[in-house]
């Protein structure tokens, strides 16, 4: 553990409870800035008995949440369990602008109808992680709509074009000669203004949101408020073991997927990637995860640890009974129909799409036939039914089954 950021001139050192809260804040995070300021806020909160205000904003750009989204939701829940006020902010106004973060082209804004439809499912799904009774739900149209043209111009005067162009995606697009629409500059301004409106003490986001989170600090200072701290979380790597989890890349696990599918997908991740999932997705203590990793390093089958992870995540979204049933289903299928003389196939090209994998393993005549069989529920990996036609598999060993009689053990590199 690094040295603690408190001054030797402080009258008393932080309490054990504050230090524990700091450790919870640090767990799995990419950056906690400024950490010294966050420690001061924690100390003040304990002394006054006043909860800190912790904000997470999500734009409802799609109707469903996947496990990648829950990385920041998990952190929010950990801080919520410490007694702080969690603000789940739905960016219904900012969604109409479109977040340009990490994009090399202008992102088309959503219509009001699309935003409404997506937002209807967002909080219901997020409530599977957060405690609804202790969550403040807000929509940023509450304060953004009343700004009007005059207020928007006044807000825009609080930041310079030169500073805005320091943002990586704007900088790269400008030098590449790619167009940048003026309205895109409004997105980080409006996200920052959310922190002013909510008097946020801490804002969470992915590493790709750092510029926008820092904007909140700047604008709070401009409006005479104590600047918020920011906490960025890593982007969860998807099932392919390469790209960040994304629905468009087909390497995701949706939190509304069937329990058996969720369980099987979690078991498909690599033994190495599993530990990142434990850190970012599990509610087990860091000590418990370290002890489990030590057991695996000492010879315990890593699949045992992966089953524990799959059961925990599946139970979170479907309940303990469904998780137990998914495990039993997996075990029954893994035992039941696998022949002793299992064909051995070695393939390269990981991460490899499921259709290409089945074709190269000579289990189907074509990728289109693979897609048809997946739709019919006729494809299993390690005993679990596969329903995602966009699934990409990372390097590893898999038992593939097509129908009742076709099997292959594939070593994918």
From TrEMBL:
Gene Ontology biological process terms, A to Z: tyrosyl-tRNA aminoacylation
Extent of motif 'HIGH' region: 60-69
Swiss-Prot/TrEMBL catalytic activity: tRNA(Tyr) + L-tyrosine + ATP = L-tyrosyl-tRNA(Tyr) + AMP + diphosphate + H(+)
Gene3D superfamilies: HUPs (3.40.50.620), RNA-binding S4 domain (3.10.290.10), Tyrosyl-Transfer RNA Synthetase (1.10.240.10)
Function: Catalyzes the attachment of tyrosine to tRNA(Tyr) in a two-step reaction: tyrosine is first activated by ATP to form Tyr-AMP and then transferred to the acceptor end of tRNA(Tyr).
HAMAP family in the record: Tyr_tRNA_synth_type2
Record-given protein name: Tyrosine--tRNA ligase
Subunit structure: Homodimer.
Motif 'KMSKS' region: where in chain: 244-248
Source organism (scientific name): Leptothrix cholodnii (strain ATCC 51168 / LMG 8142 / SP-6) (Leptothrix discophora (strain SP-6))
Compartments, as annotated in UniProt: Cytoplasm
GO MF annotation list: ATP binding; RNA binding; tyrosine-tRNA ligase activity
Family statement: Belongs to the class-I aminoacyl-tRNA synthetase family. TyrS type 2 subfamily.
Record flagged with keyword Lyase: no
